[in-house]
Amino acid sequence: MVRDLILAFPQTNYCALGLSIFAIIFLSVGRDYVNPWVKKRSPVPLPLELILVIIATIFSVIVDLKKNYDVKIVDYIPQGMPMPSLPHFDLIPYLLNDAFAIAIVSYMFDLYAVGLMHTLASFFPVYPTGASLSRSAVCEQSGANTQLYTLFSSALLLTVIVFVGPLLEPLPMVGSATSLVLIYDWCLCNFTKARWRLDRMS
């Protein structure tokens, strides 16, 4: 891995690298210093990831990162909801064994809703759903305490899909990638601290 990084170093896009460094500093300082200060004065912390997305998108539009600096952006985002269509039943023989195993493992009452959601989602060109560590971490950092947050996050996502999607097309990919990396880093650090406390107690 280190060897590949060294060999690929001459191909580095320094503009994208600079954006990544800025995003790391922005999110790290905001998470470790700004939000703790805000939480003492407000029950709602600053949405750092959303602020970063807005800043990165505006900056990308102003300097035209894709054209002038060859920075990869989100680019085209389809607007509106796709029309439902029948799933590809010809794939059933290839998926039957795995589906049966998953059904046995996930035979729990709280997963009935997930199964129903997957059934309905099969009529649309969407990705299979599942647990998202990054999304859970963002919600935890935002102060969410109940599963009701899924209602608001889903409504926000629907708004983005139907109305706001084209506005996010200039967003640099490094912005969202950096957010995910730092979120996983935050989760790993919290897990390590919790494991250390448990091991020390035992």
From TrEMBL:
<dbReference type="InterPro" id="IPR011547">
    <property type="entry name" value="SLC26A/SulP_dom"/>
</dbReference>
<feature type="transmembrane region" description="Helical">
    <location>
        <begin position="99"/>
        <end position="127"/>
    </location>
</feature>
<keyword id="KW-0472">Membrane</keyword>
<feature type="transmembrane region" description="Helical">
    <location>
        <begin position="16"/>
        <end position="34"/>
    </location>
</feature>
<feature type="domain" description="SLC26A/SulP transporter">
    <location>
        <begin position="111"/>
        <end position="178"/>
    </location>
</feature>
<dbReference type="InterPro" id="IPR001902">
    <property type="entry name" value="SLC26A/SulP_fam"/>
</dbReference>
<keyword id="KW-1133">Transmembrane helix</keyword>
<keyword id="KW-0812">Transmembrane</keyword>
<dbReference type="Pfam" id="PF00916">
    <property type="entry name" value="Sulfate_transp"/>
</dbReference>
<dbReference type="GO" id="GO:0055085">
    <property type="term" value="P:transmembrane transport"/>
</dbReference>
<dbReference type="GO" id="GO:0016020">
    <property type="term" value="C:membrane"/>
</dbReference>
<feature type="transmembrane region" description="Helical">
    <location>
        <begin position="46"/>
        <end position="63"/>
    </location>
</feature>
<feature type="domain" description="SLC26A/SulP transporter">
    <location>
        <begin position="3"/>
        <end position="108"/>
    </location>
</feature>
<protein>
    <submittedName>
        <fullName>Sulfate_transp domain-containing protein</fullName>
    </submittedName>
</protein>
